[in-house]
Amino acid sequence: MTTPTAPPGATTDWTPRPGGAPWLRQVAAQASMESRLMLRNGEQLLLAVVIPVIVLVGAVQASDRVDLDLDGRAIDVFTPGVLALAVMSTAFTSLAIATGFERRYGVIKRLGSSPLPRSGLLAGKVGALVLVEALQVVVISGVALLMGWDPAGGAGAVVGAVLAVLLGTAAFAALGLFLAGALRAEATLAAANLVYLLLMAGGAVVLPASAYGSFGDVVGWLPSGALGEAMREALVEGAVAPVALLTLLGWAVVGTVLTARTFKWE
User: Fold this and answer.
1) 136: closest CA among 171, 88, 97?
2) Could you tell me which of 185, 218, 189 has the C-alpha nearest to residue 204?
3) CA 71 vs CA 58, 154, 172, 207: distances in Å
């Protein structure tokens, strides 16, 4: 019997090499899957795009009938706040609800036994949030521009807005994962929606803290108030808001510590 020979130029090393794909490729695949699942879900799409657009249009229209003490045109003041609201809806509410039900149905447990490490799973979820938030920014900014929005320009506006989105995402994602890991899926659904509504109405995210009177100094330290203030400072004043950004960083650290201590994979 003759031994088969390899074609010229072909390798003769047929040794199996089991293992996962490179870490970055795994994260990219996980982020892509997470973002598609989020956008296919009607409830998540409602939170991500529809509600923020309705809030923007409604707030601008209502400002003509309600005497609000705003430091500028309504569209210029409300748009940064609605962009902050969109970040909160995706990074906190959508992430908490999705992760809670993934725990309930054993999805996260199965992913934990796959070649995807825990760091890759977390990075994939954060990557999906960034992709969805980019879509939110495009849609909401497009609607606002059609309504006459005139955002501040310059490096300060860009740097301030980018830092606000990144730190806001980190803070709310950490808090959302803490909620999803500590509560049952149904309780997470109820709590995440309740917190979202409370922060939207009274957390100084859409309206500036000055609109809350004596409570303004308190709500400004909430993650919602800090994110709203950082976005307004960037897109209205064209500057970076160091206190608000440090507040978001503090919430991100607190949320991360709580999540690391309490999160259960099943």
Assistant:
1) 88
2) 218
3) 19, 20, 27, 11
Mean pLDDT across 7-34 = 65
Q: Kindly provide the b/e burial profile for residues 218-243, where b requires at least 16 CB atoms within 10 angstroms of the residue's own CB.
A: ebbebbbbbbbbbbbbbbbbbebbee
Structure tokens at 155: 């490096």
pLDDT at residue 258 above 60? Answer: yes
Burial class (CB within 10 angstroms; exposed 0-12, middle 13-18, buried 19+) of 138: exposed
C-alpha 237/C-alpha 153 separation (Å) is 9
List, in order, residues 6 or more apart from 122 with CB less than 8 Å away.
Answer: none
Both structure tokens of 266? 């099943």
Residues constituting the chain:
266
Q: Tell me the pLDDT tens digit for each residue of 244-255.
A: 999 999 999 999
CB 61 within 8 A of CB 145: no
> Which residues does 92 contact at the CB level (< 8 Å), separation at least 6?
172, 173, 175, 176, 192, 195, 196
Provide the total of helices (H) and of strands (E) in the chain, helices listed first: 12, 0
Q: What is the model's pTM?
A: 0.83
Taking residue 83's Cβ as centre, other Cβ atoms within 10 Å add up to 31
Lowest mean pLDDT of 57-61, 119-123, 231-235, name the range.
119-123
Strands (E), 60-191: none
E strands, the chain, are: none
DSSP 239: S
Q: Which element (helix H / strand E) includes 238? A: none
54's tokens: 């309705």
Q: What are phi and psi of 156, to 5 degrees?
A: -60, -40
